[in-house]
Amino acid sequence: MAEFKSGFVAMAGRTNVGKSTLMNRLIGQKVAITCNKPQTTRTRIRTILTEERGQAIFIDTPGIHQAKTKLGKFMVDAAERTLNEVDLILWLVEPVDSVGTGDRHIAELLSKNSTPKVLVINKIDTVPAEKVLSMIAMYKDLADFDEIVPVSALNGRNEDDLKDVIFKLLPEGPMYYDEDELTDQPERQIAAEIIRESALKNLSDEIPHGIAVGIELMKERKKGGGYVSYEEEHGERGTGLFDIEATIVCERDSHKGIIIGKGGAMLKKIGTDARLQMEALLGFRVNLKLFVKVKKDWRNSDFLLKNYGFRDEPDDDE
């Protein structure tokens, strides 16, 4: 019988190179939020791919960038710390004409790391084959890569080749999660991220990275009224309809007005988009209510960062 491979795989790279899109592609379902605006992923998100040959737990890290706020430092620290805690590193890059300072910084981090590494050249659907070959030539000597795999996270090109490489390089190990699990993220966090993604896609460029989302209420209605208690939440007494109340936090009064929009139109659009995504991803009906609050400079407040879920993660053995 073939050995069962398992381990943790870090998705590393600069912002907006397609880490979340590739991770969603590999597991076959959307779990991490994606957007064409940088710094979409703020925390380490784990998703799980289970096959007969093994189990790969992907950790989608925030894009490594030059931090300008405490939130930015939290994101970069989380990404860099992850590189030392995994069994395999996938470094994602996209077609460029030259190696920039951001990628050189990542290459320096990787060159000091003995973990097996795969260079993944993403977005190959956007350039001719000659460009991909020039990318390989530019990047192949920046770190000690075990493999180089060009892919398109958008259309799945070479997806199977990348999976083969991943399971070849992972060590023999146990099944860490049940085979039907796709993520270890709690439903509250997934709901908050869906709302934030909807805001990212609908708001102007200067606003999204100054917002956070807090879930104030997430309960299933009970048949006959009231809510399903914690002990009952996996039973048969619920209606399949969840009431969710969430607050979008921004940094300026002017941003609050833009988020709400004329006559509440923008907030309604964000809420409708988010509700439809939640129902599709989480598998239950949603009654969503959104509120907007101003918390000036929250990205530099240790207290507010922790309050909105940005906190250092303890080691698994603690």
Percent of sequence in beta strands = 15-25%
The radius of gyration is 21 Å
Distance between the termini: 34 Å
Q: Going across the biggest sheet, name each strand in turn.
A: 2-3-1-4-5-6
- If helices are DSSP runs of H or I spanning 4 or more residues, what is the number of helices? 9
**Inertia-based shape:** globular
Return the average pLDDT rounded to an integer.
80
CATH architecture of the largest domain: 3-Layer(aba) Sandwich
Helix content: 25-40%
Structural class, please?
alpha/beta
Q: How many β strands by DSSP?
A: 9
CATH class of the largest domain: Alpha Beta
Instruction: Write down the CATH topology of the largest domain.
Output: Rossmann fold
3D structure, described in words:
With 318 residues, the chain is of the alpha/beta class. 32% of the residues lie in helices and 23% in strands. It has two domains: 5-169, P-loop containing nucleotide triphosphate hydrolases (Rossmann fold), CATH 3.40.50.300; 187-307, K homology (KH) domain (GMP Synthetase, Chain A, domain 3). The strands form two sheets. It has a six-stranded mixed sheet with strand order 2-3-1-4-5-6, sandwiched between helices. Strands 7-8-9 form a three-stranded mixed sheet. α6 packs across α8 (265-282). The longest helix is centred in the C-terminal third of the chain and has 18 residues, at 265-282. It starts with a strand and ends in an 11-residue tail after the last helix.
